[in-house]
């Protein structure tokens, strides 16, 4: 009897486990990137279809969850680029991902608007850290950057938000 060693690739059960455990976070981040709840759901659906289709390409050099996050972020960015090509997206359209903020409607809209003004990498790192509660390593895998870059980018995003908030409230 031979033992099958699955050195590379992901099986469907592993992908399904990530889907079941992280669906809410995946949709929240996809919504924030894509700009609407409906688009976020579509992104996650497309990303998991892509993950299943390309599961043999998973090399097990990092975590499966990080690999799936990278696919979700890529699908969301691709969808946003397609949308931007057909219409101009208002800067304040960040989506419903900020629903967890405990603030008044005015403050909520203000923060949404300020986050939308950040550079894309800063927005993505914020979404993945605070709306998906991912650790630096998983964020690094998802965005194909180093863990140190995640920390630096997160710090830059916080500083930029604080500065923008200070300017707006003057």
Verbal overview:
This protein has 170 residues and is an all-alpha fold. The chain has one domain: Butyryl-CoA Dehydrogenase, subunit A, domain 3, CATH 1.20.140. Helices cover 69% and strands 0% of the residues. The chain contains 7 helices and no strands. Helix 1 runs parallel beside helix 3 (64-86), helix 5 (120-131) packs across helix 7 and helix 6 (136-143) crosses helix 7 (147-168). Mean pLDDT is 80; it is low at 1-5 and 83-103.
Summarize the structure.
The protein has 170 residues and is mainly α. It has helices spanning 12-34, 37-53, 64-86, 105-116, 120-131, 136-143, 147-168. The longest helix is centred in the N-terminal third of the chain and has 23 residues, at 12-34.
The helix-strand sequence is HHHHHHH
Proportion of β residues?
under 5%
Number of strands: 0
- Which assembly state applies to the chains in this document? single chain
CATH topology: Butyryl-CoA Dehydrogenase, subunit A, domain 3
Write the layout of secondary structure elements.
Blueprint: H1 12-34, H2 37-53, H3 64-86, H4 105-116, H5 120-131, H6 136-143, H7 147-168
Question: Which labels suit this protein?
Answer:
0% strand, mainly alpha, 7 helices, 170 residues, Butyryl-CoA Dehydrogenase, subunit A, domain 3, globular
């Amino acid at each position: 009897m031979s033992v099958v060693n699955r050195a590379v690739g992901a099986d469907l059960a592993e992908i399904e486990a990530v889907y079941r455990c992280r669906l809410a976070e995946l949709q929240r981040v996809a919504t924030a990137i894509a700009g609407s709840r409906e688009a976020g759901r579509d992104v996650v659906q497309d990303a998991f279809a892509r993950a299943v289709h390309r599961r043999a390409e998973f090399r097990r050099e990092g975590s499966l969850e990080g690999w799936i996050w990278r696919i979700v972020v890529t699908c969301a960015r691709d969808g946003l680029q397609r949308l931007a090509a057909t219409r101009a997206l208002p800067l304040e359209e960040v989506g419903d991902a900020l629903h967890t903020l405990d603030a008044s409607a005015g403050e909520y809209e203000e923060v949404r608007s300020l986050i939308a003004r950040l550079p894309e990498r800063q927005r993505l790192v914020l979404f993945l850290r605070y709306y998906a509660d991912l650790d630096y390593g998983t964020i690094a895998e998802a965005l194909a950057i180093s863990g140190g870059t995640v920390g630096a980018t997160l710090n830059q995003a916080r500083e930029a938000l604080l500065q923008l908030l200070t300017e707006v409230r003057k």
